[in-house]
Amino acid sequence: MPPTAPIAMGLMVAAGVVIAVQAPINAALYRGLGSPIAAATISFGVGFLLLLLCTILFGDAHTFTALPSLPSWLLVGGALGAFFVFSALWSVPVLGVLTVTGLVVLGQIGAALVLDHYGAFGLTVREISPTRLLSGVLLVAGVILSRL
Questions:
Q1: What is the DSSP letter of 70?
Q2: How far is CA 121 from CA 28, 111, 118, in A?
Q3: So where does this one cross the membrane (predicted)?
Q4: How far apart are CA 135 and CA 13, in angstroms?
Q5: 9, 24, 89, 113: least surrounded by Cβ within 10 Å?
């Protein structure tokens, strides 16, 4: 295991907590504004400003000059993030945080199995094993249990 792996693992656990907390906060913003699109826009706007400030403070603003030379499909990540924020803030009041989070992780595991299997976007190929497939099945069971 690389020496940075425990740090990466801790960051991802923290990111999981943040996703679980972000969804109901954004749902409350949606209720306060009365518009899910406006709530998602504000959420993304605040995130954009924070990231822009960090980019400038860390001295990385010059890296924006490489943007015109990159393939335009690389910008899809922002649209995918917007879809996630909108979907979560709209779904949390309907399903609850536990079920939404379980479904998000289920979607992530399903997509991750396929992306790893094909080595998409330059990833290392990792075959779909019975153990990896079982993780998705167990998550489906968890989502079902969360709705009982």
A1: S
A2: 35, 13, 9
A3: 37-58, 70-90, 96-115, 127-145
A4: 17
A5: 9
Same domain assignment for residues 43 and 24: yes
Instruction: For residues 102 and 23, give the distance between their C-alpha atoms in angstroms, rounded to a whole number.
Output: 13
36-57 and 76-95 are packed helices; what angle lies between their axes, rounded to 10 degrees? 130
> Is the domain of 82 the same as that of 110?
no
Q: Summarize pLDDT for 113-125 with one digit per residue, the tens.
A: 999 999 999 889 9
The answer to whether the beta carbons of residues 89 and 36 sit under 8 Å apart is yes
* Structure tokens given for 148: 């009982």
- Note down the domain range covering 121: 96-148
Same domain, 8 and 52: yes
Both 15 and 69 in a single domain? yes
pLDDT in tens, 59-113: 999 999 999 999 999 999 999 999 999 999 999 999 998 888 888 888 888 898 9
20/42 Cα distance (integer angstroms):
18
The CA distance from 128 to 143, in Å, is 22
- Report the alpha-carbon distance of residue 126 to residue 116 in Å, rounded: 5
